[in-house]
Amino acid sequence: RIKVIPRSKGDDVIDGVIYIVEDLWNIHSLDIHTTKLGIDIFIKVIYAPIQDEAWLPVSHQFKMEGKVFGFEFEYNYLATVSDYKITVNPDLAVPKMEVIDETIQREEAKAIAEKFDQKKIRKPDNTQQLQERLAKGEEITRKELKTIVKEYEKQERKELDEPEVLSNVDYKIDSGAYTKDSVFWADIRPVPLTIEEVKGYQKADSLAEIERKKEAGDTLKTKHDGFKPWDPILGNNYKVSKHSSIELRPNIPNFNTVEGFNFHYRIGFGTVLQDTNKTRLNVISTFRYAFSREKLTGNLSFNLRNRNYRFKVEGGRYIKQFNPDEPILPIVNTFTTLLLEQNLMKIYERDYVDLLYRRRVNQFLTITTNWSWARRYQLQNSTTYKWVNRSSIEEYSSNVPENEELASTGFATHDAFVGSIGIAARPWLKFRIRNGRKYEIGNSSPTLSLEYRKAFELFDAAVKYDQLEAGIKHSLRLGFRGRLDFNFRGGVFLNNDSLNFMDYKHFLGNRTPFATADPAASFRLLDYYTYSTSDKYFTANVNYQFRKFLITTIPVIRLAGIRENIFVNYLATPTSKNYTEVGYTLDGILRIFRLEAAASFIDGRYLDYGFRIGIATNIAVNFSDN
């Protein structure tokens, strides 16, 4: 047996025992332990000979236990596998061999080294002698065996039809599995179900049957399910056919200094078209009422999408942030405005028609084009309402953003017609194949992007410029040491003959107490519009997560799922003066939060500091509020 002892305890390392069959050198069983996010995982696997001397796992036992918010939980999984049908690789059919361990059998290993030229043998191109000795069943050292295995794996990778495919698994479930009664399963099950498991499966079967009847429309609940008086207030989703539904979606009222309290209401229709790609059609109408302005606006959108393309047309009259990426969530702006007297979100209004088409050429390349016509209107503050008076100043700051390049970012009503085309490539993407279908392996390739944007003087448009931007983004693991996330973007306005402030390049700043979900997606302390530019620019966002750094060298903290990150953000524009941020993060607090401390500098001189709280970086969260 082999005792597995990690150099240091923590996630993604194992400890325990691996049992090896004597003389055959294959795995007999595993009894190992690891942790993930502070959760203990115990694994026991038993192998058995299936055909000739090919051993495969026949029993799997997994146990997970831990605490979340003080609540203990335990999960057990047991599975057995039988009736294997395998084809033994003839290249691996070798007679029994005796492997000499250099660390224990030193004299035998020395004799082999004197008999054969070890330097030549260790070269990948000179393994024929080793293979001949292996075929004869002669003694071979552990290092020599490792050399042969590496060479074989290298040749196998070269022979694959699709080298980007890392695994290929096919499975199917026997149609008779769903018709067998409990007596049959009790007879073949090696380990009887517990009372709790029997009750759990009975409940799951009952719920599955209810869902089946619900789809068929033959349950009492379905027959009486319909519109209720409170649905317009609370919202609901109505299934009008097998593939179609209607949705009522009211929104929590938000607040900004232009509209005061505002409320938007969404009515949507969705259906799945019965084509080969299962294309989904969504038609959504949104109504928005601003109480302070006493004005109703809205839009209508048509959206077609499937795995290979997306086509969207949207039009109406609606408000929009000057930064088209809309970095400030309305609910967060409501909090900062009413409680902190900071109206961070700057908006304007537009009559518009937007068109988007995105095509996935293949798994490696996606092309996107956007076209927009808009009539833009400047908006002014219309309210001084607040919940807390933190200062003697009665007025909120203006809805006109402040910028280093422009003396005033105000604008007259005007028209704009803007088009763009962009490509996103993941040239080194890897896959796994399951039942003939490819599944992408996330973060197996960096994303390279290139976009060209142009404003045309058409349809009485008063905006004219050309902009080119390129970027690279990736998240990769550096062995067991940590994870590196980076996002580099750079661009230039080839001409800026005529443009308004919303046409400038804006950057993802943050003046709220909350951090974005992606640690390499935005700045922590940067003002939203101070360094927006119509010239050249470059941004770099880098985040590195350590396995062990400062406090995580203490095992009890590391095993609780806490991680430490450091991050650096950089902005270069003609006016930004080498704006830089550096910071430190405690990640995975209570497994779902992270706390950040950051400081900013201009030309190396200290500027500001701040703290941010956000979602743990291991949790993917998407926020949307249109």
CATH topology type of the largest domain: Porin
The CATH class of the largest domain, by name, is Mainly Beta
Architecture per CATH nomenclature, i.e. the level-2 architecture of the largest domain = Beta Barrel
Percentage of residues assigned to helices:
10-25%
> What is the CA-CA span between the terminal residues?
60 Å
Shape: globular
Query: Biggest sheet, open or closed, and with what strands and sense?
Result: 18 strands, antiparallel
Number of separate domains: 4
Average pLDDT works out at 86
How big is the Rg? 31 Å
Low-confidence sequence ranges: 217-224, 620-626
How is the topology of this model organized?
Blueprint: E1 2-4, E2 15-20, E3 27-36, E4 39-51, E5 54-68, E6 71-80, E7 99-100, H1 106-115, H2 118-121, H3 128-136, E8 140-141, H4 142-159, E9 165-169, H5 182-188, H6 195-216, H7 220-224, H8 231-234, E10 236-239, E11 244-250, E12 254-256, E13 260-272, E14 280-290, E15 295-305, E16 309-321, H9 330-340, E17 347-362, E18 365-377, E19 414-425, E20 431-434, E21 437-440, E22 447-456, E23 464-477, E24 482-498, E25 537-546, H10 555-558, E26 563-572, E27 579-589, E28 593-602, E29 605-615
Parallel strand pairs: 7-8, 9-20
Antiparallel strand pairs: 1-2, 2-3, 3-4, 4-5, 5-6, 10-11, 11-13, 12-13, 13-14, 14-15, 15-16, 16-17, 17-18, 18-19, 19-22, 20-21, 22-23, 23-24, 24-25, 25-26, 26-27, 27-28, 28-29
